[in-house]
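User: Predict structure, ligand uridine-5'-diphosphate-glucuronic acid.
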Amino acid sequence: MRISVIGSGYVGLITAAGFAENGHTVICVDVLQEKINAINKKKSPIYEKGLDEILKRVVGKNLTATTDLRKAVMGTDMTFLCVGTPSNGDGSVDLKYVKKASEDIGRVLKEKRGYHVVVVKSTVIPGTTEDVVIPVLERNSGRKVGRDFGVAMNPEFLREGVAIEDFMNPDRIVIGASDKKAGDFVESVYHGFSSPILRTDIKTAEMIKYASNAFLATKISFINEIGNICKKLGIDVYDVAKGIGLDHRISPHFLRAGIGFGGSCFPKDVKALVYKAREIKETPAILNSVLEVNKKQPLKILDIAKKKAGKLKGKRVAVLGLAFKAETDDMRESPAIAIVNELVRKGAKVAAYDPKATENAKAIFGDKIKYARSATEALRGSELALIVTDWIEFKNLNFKEMKKKVVVDGRKAINEDTLPNDVEYEGVCW
Ligand code: UGA
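Assistant: Predicted complex:
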């Protein structure tokens, strides 16, 4: 199949690389020339494990990148819409990129011959594809969906850090389509995947994406709330999570308590669903609580730190980990933001270290904090260490050079069993 992918951000690039790796002919499109140049030079513009290796194999063979959307759509049979859907601040989704791309694709479809399917992969609130994308496509192409071209919604469930693996071996593939022909067309590009394929209508596919992320976010806030109760009762919530996770109806996944969820998806998607629910006069009580628990959770690490180490003012504090999770350089909605800002507000002297996210962190904190080149450098002379991201390299840290060896772990990242006796260790929920 000849596929064009509009938007070479995280989702677009993984999708393009994944389809190319599976033998399809793929053209990536983006408005940013530097991104296109990087891809054509076989260099991924984002950090994602395994992506550079795939680009090395496919670029110049069956994957190319261009800023020319018209050429890309004209030369392909299926177009994946993978543009960003940022938040408007009030929780609602900003559809400007979706609308613009739909207009551009629509104009090309006006002159294109042969069957074409437009597949929305961007995360959009239920109703968006039918109420916004299809009308824009029809208006700009002068053609009719279902008769002249097809539209489908195919949500992504990729996790940063393991996105290639998730693309190649998904738990499920969801295809919501305007009509059977369009759905069959999309299903054919997933030929060879052994995952279950679920065919739905378009709105349902959109909702499956939101409900999945909202459910996972709920699981995290739930275990964090249980963790906060456990902490006061002297119970390790990780033992409790093990106990409940053995029930196959609960499952052991997404029960890692700590300082809460971040990233570009969970916070934004839950807020967007809350916004939509309110708009249609529903009160999303559970989703509201999920967000409330998550807002307070990062600062729990500072409550515990204050109890253990006293006042933060003037204290040198090592913050280990800044990314919203390990194996990524992504700082978006990272719990580290609230923690570092509060430390700075309280007058602490912060030395932060992250194996990958330092450059992105500099754009957020500027010169308000110091950036160490290693965990050891951050720890040197510190009176308190806060573990914010569960990077593997933090498992067996050496705290020898700390001035006072007080360590508060927000992610159960440290191997407690190997800690020397002179380290005072405390977990957020254990
Ligand atoms: C998430 C979903 O897992 C993907 O399925 C989805 O495709 C993606 O959002 C998206 O909508 O694009 P991602 O944001 O990459 O993926 O990260 P996760 O691995 O899900 O972690 C999200 C946050 O939850 C992180 O801050 C992580 O530290 C936290 N988390 C996760 C916990 O605090 N506890 C857990 O048990 C699991």
